[in-house]
Amino acid sequence: MDDTLIAAMLASTLRVSTPLILCALAGMFSERSGVVDIGLEGKMLFAAFAAGAAGAAYQSTALALGLGVLVAVALSWMHGLACVSHKGDQVVSGVAINIIAAGMTVVLGIAWFSQGGQTPPVGSDVRIQALFPGLPEALYGIPLVGRIVGEGLLSHNAMVYLALALVPACWWVLFRTRFGLRLRAVGENPQMVDAAGVSVSRLRYAALTINGVLCGLAGAYLVLAQSANFSANMTAGRGFMALAALIFGRWHPVGAFWACLLFGFLDAAAIRLQGVQISGFGEVPVQFIQALPYVLTVVLLAGFIGKAVAPQALGRPYSKER
Amino acid sequence: MNANYALPRWADLVLLPAVCLLVALLAAAGVVAMVGQDPVEVISVLVQGAFGSQRGISYTLYYATTFIFTGLAVAVAFHGGLFNIGGEGQAILGGLGTGLMALWLSHALPAWMMLPLMVLSGALFGAAWAAVPAYLQAYRGSHVVITTIMFNFIASSLLVYLLVNHLRPAGSMSVESAAFAASAKLPGMHEALAAIGIEWDASPLNMSLILALLASAGVYLFLWRTRAGYRLRAVGSSQSAAEYAGINVRHQIVIAMAISGALAGMVGMNEIAGVNGKLLLEFVSGAGFTGIAVALMGRNHPVGIIFASVLFGALFQGGAEVAFEVSGFSREMVVMLQGFIVLFSGAMVYVIAPMLAWVLSKFVKSGVQHG
Question: Which residues cross the membrane (chain B) (predicted)?
Answer without folding.
Answer: 57-78, 85-105, 111-132, 144-164, 205-223, 253-273, 279-298, 305-324, 336-360
